Amino acid sequence: MNDDQNLESKLLHPPQQWYYELLTGQVTQNPGQNRMGPYPTEDEARNALEIAAKRNEEWQMEDDEWNGKK
Length: 70
Known about the structure:
single chain, alpha+beta, 3 helices, flat
């Protein structure tokens, strides 16, 4: 399969994506306001808040190291 065929396949048959609805805590495949994502799996979307918290911690540690606070 060449690059054009790969692109066409991705556009015509995009992979499923999942979102975490911040207001209700539910997981959905519909993008929209107040949603985190997309995530490649339903399980990852369900854990969106934990994933975000972990990333924020990592980024804060990197910022602290960059700024000489470590």
